[in-house]
Amino acid sequence: SATILLVGAEGGPQQQLAEAMLCEKKDFNINIHLASSLPLPPERDHLRPRIDLIAFVIDIKSKYSLKSVQASLAYVDVRFFLGKVCFLVTGVGRVNNCSVEMNAIWKLGEDYCSPVIFCELELEGIRVATAQRLLRMLQICAGRVPGVSALYFSLL
Amino acid sequence: MDEVAVEYIRRTVLKIPRDEIMAVLQKWGFLSEAQLQTINFRQTKESISHSVAQLCEESSAGIKQAALLDIIYNHIYPNKRVWSVYHMNKTGKASFFSFSTQVTINFREYEDNAIWIRIAWGTPYTKPNQYKTSYVVYHSQTPYVFISASTLRSNLPLLCQAMVVASNYHNIREMELRSHCLNSLKDIVFKRYSQNFQTNYPLQERNVLTENEDLRINDENRSEKERIHRLNQECFGDGPQPKLDFAQYKLETMFKSDPKWDVLEKKEPFRCLVKFSSPHLLESLKSLAPAGLADAPLSPLLTCIPQKARNYFKIREKSSLHPGSFVSP
After folding, report:
1. B327 vs B303: CA distance, rounded Å
2. Residues B188, B177: contact at Cβ < 8 Å?
3. Are the Cβ atoms of A32 and B220 closer than 8 angstroms?
4. Together in a domain, B61 and B93
5. Per the domain annotation, does B31 fall within a domain?
6. Domain end: B56, B76, B96, which one?
7. Does B203 reside within a domain?
8. What residues of B are in contact with residue A32 (Cβ under 8 Å)?
9. Which residue of B has its CA nearest to A35?
10. One Pfam annotation, family name (chain A) (predicted)?
11. Would you call A36 and B223 a contact, using CB atoms and an 8 Å cutoff?
12. Is A127 within 8 Å of chain B by CB?
């Protein structure tokens, strides 16, 4: 089985994305953990399996969600940044409500050597497509695809 | 034929949403059912108002009927006005001053023991202007009065005097509580809203979440969310909150900074006004912590609003041994 951790501010699309991922057909068990920020509460440490992929959800309409993700990044073990971290940027459909600069997003991806995926998670079609991509990435990060390692993601 | 009254009626009708004009006119009861049937309610509101005015002219409507329609309109749509709450008591000596001015006064009593009083103000030298009105809502079993003064605040002392005399009290005091929603003001002072309570139910009960919960989705912050939910319940209670438009805090506190910066030469209080506005202030405060926008528990300055029955606060320095600020009564 494989575990993905979705980190994003409260009220975001994480829950729906998680449900979309569970609906997809797959040949391995997955666990999805949701958190609004890092560090994770220590009292649940013993219940948590090894995390294979961390996806940070940033809502481009909310400066607060970007700040929250930036603060959380400090708590991620450096080994995750070898392809086991990615950024999901949502809210891009509403150009008029953008509060976060594109430069800030690109810089984040560069600084942390991790892919940035733009997805309008409020739209069901894109949400399903993103769920499929995440599942594929999760498969690779969990080592279930022979010959392909997570290191490839840092080159994206 | 009273042209002023008829025009006033016409303008009152214009304020009513078109689909509700018939119901309001029926409640008014001045025009007969046969007369009401002759009005075409599919026209524009302007035309409907002229039809009504025509019928009122034929039936010789006067100021009294016009005032009654105005009371009924304001009783159905009280949220168009801003209401302040006043508290009457019997302490102290009753004092009077004499003042003469011309007014039109109309009363109407409603089922919930509420008396609606409409006052149109004039001056000692001119007739009352029907467009300059104040409203007073008084519940006879309580010491509370709800006043919507509108434009002429100079008449407020006279109005308060009149209330005190009429209701057999000695003093009247304005409470620091104001809102558009009259029913919510009543809920607050009559303590009709759901109050905070200490929950004695064990946390286990909260673990029974929605039936569709998938065990493969783990919320890392579940215990934090439950803590926030519990604190919110304790602060705000379970039911709907009274509807307030704003809360205003006037600060007269000293500016606290690093001593070596010495921002202000004279040690005077720093004056500052903070105003929170919202279509529904208390519900939005209640949802701040669950939305992750504020830490729970919220500051007691925000959560005490319904209990203290006020939305205007003055925060001053505590001038004795304990530094800090306190809220003045």
Report:
1. 13
2. yes
3. no
4. no
5. yes
6. B76
7. no
8. 216-218
9. B220
10. CENP-M
11. no
12. no
Of A10, A15, A40, the CB nearest to B220: A40
Structure tokens that stand for A152 in this block: 């490839």
Tokens of B200: 């004695």
Q: Which of B39-53, B88-102, B238-252 has the lowest mean pLDDT?
A: B88-102
Question: Which tokens sit at B155?
Answer: 């008449």
Last residue of a domain, one of B17, B51, B76: B76
Residue type, B103: V
CA pair distance A61, A97, nearest whole angstrom: 6
Distance, in Å, from the CA atom of B280 to the CA atom of B230, rounded to the nearest integer, reads: 22
Q: What are the tens digits of pLDDT across the range B170-202?
A: 888 889 999 999 999 999 998 887 766 544 554
Residues B61 and B136 in one domain: no
* Distance separating alpha carbons of residues B326 and A95, to the nearest angstrom: 45
Best interface-test mutation with A: which of B203, B209, B213, B218 has the largest number of A CBs within 10 A? B218
Give residue B202's pLDDT. 44
**Residue B31 structural domain:** 3-76
Using the predicted structure, report yes or no on whether residue B210 has a pLDDT greater than 70.
no
* CA count, 13 A, side-chain hemisphere, B175: 25
- CATH class given for the domain over A2-153: alpha beta
Calculate how close chain B gets to A78, using CA atoms only, in Å: 21
Higher-scoring residue by pLDDT: B204, B55: B55
Q: What is the pLDDT of residue B70?
A: 93
User: B107-155, pLDDT tens digit by residue?
Assistant: 899 888 899 999 888 888 888 888 888 999 999 888 999 999 876 677 8
Do both B58 and B129 map to the same domain?
Answer: no
Which residues of chain A make contact with B290, given a CB cutoff of 8 A? 10
Least confident of A111-115, B45-49, B256-260: B256-260
Q: Is A113 on the interface with B (CB under 8 A)?
A: no
Q: Which of residues 180-239 of B touch A (CB under 8 A)?
A: 214, 216-221, 223-224
pTM over the 0.90 mark: no
Q: Are residues B121 and B180 located together in one domain of the fold?
A: yes
Residues B87, B177 within the same domain: yes
The CATH number of residue B258's host domain is: 3.10.20.720
Q: Using CA of residue B317, residue B321, residue B322, residue B327, what is the dihedral sign?
A: negative
Q: Indicate if the pLDDT at residue B96 is higher than 80.
A: no
Predicted local distance difference test score (pLDDT) of residue A13 = 86
| 3-state SS, residue B134 | strand
Inside any domain, residue B296:
yes
How close, in Å, is residue B225 to chain A by CA atoms? 10
Q: For residue B32, give Cα distances in angstroms to A30, B105, B124.
A: 73, 25, 37
Are residues B232 and B310 both part of a single domain?
yes
* Residue B195, in any domain of the structure: no
